[in-house]
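Students often ask why inverse folding is considered easier than folding. One informal answer: many sequences map to the same fold, so there is more than one right answer. In these notes we will look at a single instance of the problem. The structure comes first.
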């Protein structure tokens, strides 16, 4: 299995864990919720779904076509949309084995989970991931980016004199992007630690309370479109 197809299978299983979906709806969710899949097509999705069905992780069920399927005109123009229109009557549902397999994938914290595309997919399902696993993935990602940043700085120091202004600016832009993500990861890691410590202190004496999937540590960034909490309104 290629890394790309493995990420897609992971994302499909994760979305179907939330609820059964038509292929058309799945593609929309993958496009809108997981930006790494913006460019993929039905020709990529349906073989993936068939593979998951064959593995016993999904089942196909008859269902009504979603209201927002491509129109007859657009289907005539785009053959892939026509294919989607016919197949959208099938609903894909996660099996018990599929749920167990997805939970196993969620527990993985190896180097693949730190890479760019896989990390984005993993982070999208952090709400379903145990806190300790989230911490290991975040720390692994930070370590990987710090290594990348060190190499970028060393490369820039060696080649600075040979670069024109625009290439130099592009190099700086790349470094700044990595630095921003490292700062973001530092904030997330600190928030996870603070949330874990807070949960530990507040649940003393309640050993049977399950907090493995809690996301209390996630930093909350204020939405300027919402009223200020000092106005006695609920966020």
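Output (designed amino acids):
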């Amino acid at each position: 299995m290629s890394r790309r197809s493995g990420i897609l299978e992971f994302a499909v299983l994760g979305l179907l864990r939330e609820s059964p979906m038509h292929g058309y709806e799945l593609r929309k969710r993958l496009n809108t919720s997981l930006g790494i899949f913006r460019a993929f097509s039905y020709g990529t999705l349906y073989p993936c779904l068939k593979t998951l069905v064959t593995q016993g992780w999904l089942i196909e069920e008859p269902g009504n076509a979603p209201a927002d399927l491509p129109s007859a005109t657009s289907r005539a123009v785009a053959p892939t949309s026509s294919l989607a229109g016919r197949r959208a009557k099938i609903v894909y549902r996660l099996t018990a084995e599929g749920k167990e397999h997805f939970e196993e994938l969620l527990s993985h914290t190896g180097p693949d989970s730190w890479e760019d595309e896989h990390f984005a997919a993993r982070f999208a399902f952090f709400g379903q991931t145990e806190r300790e696993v989230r911490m290991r993935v975040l720390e692994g990602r930070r370590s990987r980016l710090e290594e990348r940043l060190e190499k970028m700085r060393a490369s820039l120091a060696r080649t600075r004199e040979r670069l024109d202004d625009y290439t130099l600016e592009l190099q700086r832009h790349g470094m700044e992007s990595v630095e921003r993500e490292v700062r973001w990861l530092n904030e997330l890691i600190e928030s996870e630690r603070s949330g874990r410590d807070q949960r530990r202190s507040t649940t003393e004496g309640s050993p049977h309370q399950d907090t493995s999937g809690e996301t209390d540590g996630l930093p909350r960034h204020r939405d300027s479109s919402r009223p200020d909490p000092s106005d006695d309104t609920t966020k």
